[in-house]
Amino acid sequence: MTDRALSVVRAGVLTTVQDQGRPGHAHLGVPRSGALDAPAAALVNRLVGNPPGAAVLETTVNGCALRPRSAVTVAVGGAPCPVTVNGRPAAWGAPLRLPAGAVLDVGSAVSGLRSYVGVSGGVTVEPVLGSRSTDLLSGLGPEPLTDGMVLPLGPEPAAHTRVDVAPQAAPPAELVLRVTLGPRDDWFTPDAVRVFTTRAYRVSPASNRIGLRTEGPVLERALPGELASEGMVLGAVQVPPNGQPVVFLADHPTTGGYPVIGVVRTTDLPAAAQAVPGTPVRFVAVRRL
Description:
Elements: E1 5-10, E2 16-18, H1 38-48, E3 56-58, E4 64-68, E5 72-78, E6 83-85, E7 88-90, E8 96-98, E9 104-106, E10 115-119, E11 150-152, E12 175-181, H2 190-198, E13 201-203, E14 211-215, E15 230-231, E16 236-238, E17 246-248, E18 255-256, E19 260-264, H3 269-273, E20 280-285
Parallel strand pairs: 12-20
Antiparallel strand pairs: 1-4, 1-11, 2-3, 3-10, 4-9, 5-8, 5-10, 6-7, 6-9, 12-19, 13-14, 13-20, 14-17, 15-18, 16-17, 16-19
């Protein structure tokens, strides 16, 4: 086996391979997937000299530990966390050169939820429908990391302009999501629409890569019954029978029968990837562009 590879020493609670996803396959029932905090994933790739679409590792809550079989450059970004190399403190948010056999330990998030590990050459697991992303809903792509797994890497990138550090957005203390109402806001009472855009919610512990679930005021229906299944888009805010809004994230289903009260702007969704349970959430109504 090539020495351009990473051995997984500690997989963490949920670490997956992610890139820019596989858009354009919703008609086949395939979600977009990809890194939930896309700007963080792009930044760690930039720090190690990879193109933006190279596959990175997305950790959840408690990080992971990795051992390269050859010298590599790595960078850890996204949710701030302690980083060590062979047990010694190392920089977060900056490129690190690891010798072969060194152990990179990405610790538990200090704030936020998801950290990203970029490795020079990118993770080169077999692509499916043009993407190396793990999709938790459909099961496409590689399995989540397990202890002892070996991940292949691409060739070392050509020399590039090095950046010592780069600014990264802090995880949100309050999640503000701009939302365009519709297409099914008329399925709710006028008071429910007002409540949705003026009252505070909070992030539910049941949130995952499929959707950010919220807890707060119940949204009352104006119409009984259910819709026939219709297409769902990234950022759609679906309201199930319990009346609690769910914001669809990268691994969301491509169809659904619960009414969508609005759609969140995609530029606001990276912050949703880092919102820990209990984070206050506000939906702010905006007009279509």
